[in-house]
Structure formats: C-alpha cells, structure tokens
Design goal:
Layout: H1 3-15, E1 32-37, H2 43-58, E2 68-73, H3 81-90, E3 95-98, H4 101-110, E4 116-118, H5 124-127, E5 140-142, H6 148-161, E6 167-173, H7 176-191, E7 195-201, H8 207-213, E8 219-222, H9 232-241, E9 246-248, H10 251-255, E10 260-263, H11 266-281, E11 298-302, H12 303-309, H13 315-320, E12 323-325
Parallel strand pairs: 1-2, 1-3, 3-4, 4-5, 6-7, 6-8, 8-9, 9-10, 11-12
Antiparallel strand pairs: 10-11
Helix pairs in contact: 2-11, 3-4, 6-7
Amino acid sequence: MNRRAFLVRLSSGLLAGPFASEGQQPSGKVPLVGLFDLSAPDPSRLNWWKALRQGLEELGYAEGRNIRFEARWADGRAERLPALATELIGLQVDLIVTGGGETARIAKQATATIPIVMATGVDPVKLGVIQSLGRPGGNVTGVTSLSSELITKRVSLLRELLPKVSRVAILADSTPNAQLSVQELEGAAVILGVTVHSVRVRGPNDLDRAFSGAAKDQALFVVGSPVQFPARKRIADLAVKHRLPTVVGGRDYVEAGGLLSYAVSYPALFRRAAWYVDKILKGAKPADPPVEQPTTFELIINLRTARALGLTIPQALLRRADEVIQ
C-alpha cells in the first residue's frame, strides 16, 4: 500500500468513528461527503474534522446509515490540490467540505455544480470563491476564520507585549489564501506604526532560510495555514533559537511553543460548518445561506516560551488571556 492510500485510509478511519444511533433515517442513496484539506492528518488537525463530525452527529447523522465520508489530504503540498479535487469529483461526492481557503478556491475551480462548504479560511470574497458574504451565489458557502477585527487586534497585542517594537517579519506561504492575510497584516501594522516585511516559504525546507532572513527583526507574525501547520513545532523552536517573539495563528501553534495567539477556535468553526452540510443535504442551495464570520476569539499565551525568550508578559495581558500555558 502506498503512502497516499495509507493516509487516506487512516484519516478516513479516524474521521469515521461511530455515531449515536439516533437521527434521520436514510431514504434512497446515502450521500457521500468529501473532506478536503491542504494539511496533513496529524492529531491536532484531525480534532478539527472530528468537531465537524460531532456537529453532524448532533444533527442526527450516522456514518454508513445516512452519510458517508471520503477524505483527501495534500500533506501541505499545494501543488497536489487540483489532482485531489479531481479525485473527489470522480467519486461523485454529493458535497465537499474544505479545510481552508485554498482548498475552497481549488475545489471551486474544479466544479461549479457540486456544493462546497468552507469550514475555515480567509476572506472568500477576495479569494474569488463567493460574490459576497450575505449572498454567496454559486456553489460555495460556509464559515470564514478571518475578520478585520482579528488582524488589527493581533498587531495591537504585539505592541502591548513589546511597546518599543518597530520592525516585524511576517512568515507565510505563497498561496493566495496566505498572501491575503499578509496584506491585512501589512495594512494594520502601518496604521499602528510598525514596519513589516514578508518572508515567504513554500514548505518546511525553506524555514531555516526564512528565519535567517528575519535576523534583524524584533518579532514575527506567523500566518497560520495548512502548509505551515505540520511544521508548527519547528517554527516555534526556530523562533526561540533566533530570539523572536511570535504572534501565531491559533491554539495549536501556541501549544507547539508559539508565544501568543489571538484567533478563532477552529474546532468551533468546523462544528458550525456541520449546519451548512445539513441544510444543503436537505435541499438548500449553497448560493443562499450567508457566509458567517467569527465573533469570538481566544487569547492564549505560552509562559514557558516567554521565559525561554527572557520576556515578561504584562500582567494586564495575562489577566485577559483565555488560557495561559505554564
């Protein structure tokens, strides 16, 4: 069995755990839902997809009885996405759930008829996958993980943590999804008087070069993305090695050793995406349900990393944290 087949079988098994017996009774064909992710199926990422499954369970779905799943993972390699999307379409899936803006963009390029539900991702209007948040149009709807409030807050938190910071690097991959986040960060940083420059990476092999390029910077924004997600522990270790405080893209990055995160709860977004899956499988058109933006964010701080960097976190910031990792 080759590695791709093994990963698909493994991830499908983990994502296809038993459901409660209650729920809708199947009528005719059991719908097949494609799960499409640019990242790799590590335990943290699988937890996001399990949240989708839990949300569907609460809505009455049971694996094999009234819903089926087929997962495709790109292992952080964006160039694999078109072929994987084609595979899902060839399986005649009834709906595709995407684990990021780039997978939504590629899925939409691959099909204009199969409904697509986004479980996360940056501005889908700017990515060109929907017409507007209120009236998506086309075959894509769901939830987005980004808002202007989130980006501005991340920059202001950095200024609160490091009042004298003036030069910051942004670590991001080169996908259109990640570059939209870079543009938002650059705009917010200029308003708050911080000079920023972007350091692009294609994958983990570029990280040593990227950190060398950030040697003159005082801090680092890490744009969370499926490409960088599998390398989050290495990113955190390199940041400590280079004495760079990091503002990172979610809880999983802080748990891996990042310093500070202000972000959505991604499992909560994936759970919410289950509502869209349910509505569409029951006959709703994906053009109609508005795309939701997050309204609740988590502030998480890693004190172990702060100590390793020789930083003292202001007490006011610690008091506002939703979680402090000791």
